[in-house]
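Limitations
The structure tokens in this dataset are predictions for the assembled complex, not deposited experimental models. Users should treat interface geometry with appropriate caution, especially where small molecules or nucleic acid strands are included. An illustrative entry is reproduced here so readers can see what is and is not provided.
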Amino acid sequence: MSRLFLLLLAASLAPLAQAASSPAELLQGYAAEARQAAPGFSGFSAERGKELYYRRNTKDGKAISCASCHSDDPRRSGMTPSFRKIGPMASAVNPERFRDPAKVEKWFRRNCDDVLSRACTPLEKGDFLTFLTTLR
Amino acid sequence: MRYLASLIAASLLLAGITHAEEHEGRRLAMPAKVNAAWKTECGSCHMAYPPGLLPGRSWNALMNNLSHHFGSNASLDKGTEAEIRQFLLYASSDRDTRPAKAAPGERIVTRITDTARFADWHEEVRADVFRRQSVGSAANCMACHRGAEQGNFDEHQVRIPR
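Predicted assembly:
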């Protein structure tokens, strides 16, 4: 019985051990991918990340951008159209941000598809994170 | 080992459900042990709608199409998807766990707000009340039922915002 318990405990802790990570580590990963995609890659840009954050697209006849859910000011809370509050995106006010690579990838996959109707590139992901982790 | 772990997880889940509190009246039964992945994943864009609000058939159809989820991409990895599907089916209103297969020409209802039960419950609520700015839409249960996420829809605790 206690063996079984340990087994269960180990199984439930395994994903946690994988999850812990820092935004800097994530950025390193995206930099490696960006370099592979374009050998001329010369670093991420908060300016381009900001442009992506506010870039407007049309979806089902309505304007949509990252800012429409994540708020016009990334230091403030946002709201989904289906009424869920979203904590601020800027690391400066929300240190919990961008710490679980699987979570970050999951939301890039969904939200880039919703807003841009395509996947985001490693360069865009790195720019976006750079904007939000350096914003004061 | 993985298999064993999931087998155990499944039996714990089932045990939780047989012990689920069956509330009186039309308060919905919520499993005693709520699945954590369901709570975070299905509660990130809107309230986590209690599984007892739809039959198994509807949850199955909804889970089959998460990358086109009411105009949003809500896709999950295969493992999490299977785990959540199992939780939803076993705690659904009819505990129907068979794979959903629509008959030719049939459209399986996936909106709670499109069900006949929902219309019955809200017979006395005018359509324009659901459209109030303070409510947003009928799908925003929490605007009027504060305990909605815990499965509490007791009509004596309803408060409609102005």
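Some entries come with short summary sentences. For this one: The radius of gyration of chain B is 16 Å.
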